[in-house]
Every structure is written in C-alpha cells, then in structure tokens.
Amino acid sequence: EVQLVQSGAEVKKPGESLKISCKGSGYSFTSYWIAWVRQMPGKGLEWMGIIYPGDSDTRYSPSFQGQVTISADKSISTAYLQWSSLKASDTAMYYCARLDRGWLDYWGQGTLVTVSS
Amino acid sequence: QSALTQPASVSGSPGQSITISCTGTSSDVGSYKYVSWYQQHPGKAPKLMIYDVSKRPSGVSNRFSGSKSGNTASLTISGLQAEDEADYYCSSYTSSSLLAVFGGGTKLTVL
Known about the structure:
Shape of chain A: globular
Radius of gyration of chain A: 13 Å
Strand content of chain A: over 45%
Order of helices and strands of chain B: EEEEEEEEE
Oligomer: heterodimer
Strand content of chain B: over 45%
Distance between the termini of chain A: 40 Å
Structural class of chain B: mainly beta
Structural class of chain A: mainly beta
Largest sheet of chain B: 6 strands, mixed
Radius of gyration of chain B: 13 Å
Number of helices of chain A: 0
C-alpha cells in the first residue's frame, strides 16, 4: 500500500527556521517525483515545487523560488520542505503528494505550520 | 503564474448532474493531456478523482467524468449524492513554469 506520512504540526515564531518531512512507503521512492502543495487558511491549493528523489532534480514554482528549499534523502525514503526564516504569511497546511506523470495520485495527511509571535 | 479559472461555487439537488468548468490557456489546459481533478472534504487531504483529462483512478465512482474542449476542462458529477459535497480543484501542466498550476477551487453544495 502506497503511503506518504508527514511530520507533525509545528508552531514557530517569525524568523525561525523549520524543516518538515514526508516519508514514502509501499512503492519505489526513487522512481516518482514528490510534490509539495500549500493551502493557506480558507484558501485553495498551490503547487510549490517538485523533487525527483532518484537524483534530487528539483523544480520550483516561480512564486516559491528562493522562499523555500525542497530536498530528499533517498536512503530513508523521505522528502523535506524547509524554510530558513519563517514569516507569518507562511502559516498554512502543507501537503506532500506523489506525482505520477502529470497528476498527484497519493497524498500525505498534511502538516500544519503556524507562525506567530 | 495565474491559477486556472473555476467558478467559486456550484450547487445541485440529489440525483441531479452538475458540471464544473476549468478555464486555462494554450500554455496549459489547451495544449496538454495532464489535466486532473481533486476532491477535498473539510479538514481532509485532497483526493485524485480524474487524471489525463478523463480517466478515473481505481475506486472512484463512474458518476465522475472529465472532458476538455479547447482551453476549458470540465468535471461532471452525475446522480449527485450528499457525500459529493466538497471542494473541487482542477490542475494542469503548464509550459509557463514547466510545472503545474491549480484552479482556484469550486465549492459544491448538495441541496
């Protein structure tokens, strides 16, 4: 069974750093891209970027380029999304999902990130 | 890049059919088969309902169907049921960013 399990909710202060994770199981982790998707409170879905764990090839949506870093450790089947300096506007639910060609077929349960002073 | 355009809300009675549109451009919906649709219930992760414009993943009811004409894709739900009440998002590959883009989402209310 394909599963993506994300790390737990985080509460951070502005300016702090953060790295959240997404662990894949039940399939060849290195053979599929992993996407990160943001959903701000009460808002729609936004593509942030994707990573191919097989070779760490990474692509970012223009809105997120330079704002976050996507990485992966294929030895433990885990993808990451990180911030070096959080802002209040980063408060959102973040989902990872498996990208099969052009669609997201399996999703993680989401990680809620709250940034507040 | 701009999101694909969806109606903010649609509604229908049980048993009826509804259609949600998703309008893009020749850089996304109009040029690629990678159009997909997702259902999201409150507090839940999105779920893939349609991929490659009109294909259904295993386990998705055949009441859900997808199509495309020009720069507009559509999701049709027939025989509406109370459990279909949710938010629906379309997505398409886009050559603008070599990635993908979502629509703004449509809230479906089953009356």
